[in-house]
Design a protein that fits this description.
The chain is an alpha/beta fold. The protein is 50% helix and 13% strand.
Amino acid sequence: MKRIKIYLETSAISNLDQPNMQNEMADMHVLWDLIKQGEFDVVISSTVIDELIAIKDTVKRDNLLDYLAEIKYEPVFISDEIRTIANQIILNGILSAKCYEDCEHLACAITSNCDCIVSYNFKHLVNFRTIHGARAISNLHGYGNIDIMPASILIQKGE
């Protein structure tokens, strides 16, 4: 059976060190252990790395970068194709230009043929309009369906 290919968005990685969100942090640690065991193929973009490096709390920033060193992932760098898809996300009213980095996250996951984006950004990414729009853009460009979900949904196992 094919492993699920996931794109880890910045808010998901950030929840590895988020003591004020105990449930989300616990779920991310379960997912992280599964990633380290090779249960998922992982994609992380240069946008994620840039956002992590920009964290002003140096202790948190260093902790999160240390977590990244624990896993294998496919790095994705911003290309013309990614910029084109990000701009189409804006032009189609899925997200606004104010959220350009979120558009890049979607475009990186789409062009990398990810099955899902793991995110805790409920305002911009984990909502019906964005999920529906991302699927439409993905299919328009000949990529497969893509889901957007928090770790809690991804780590659920069948009974």
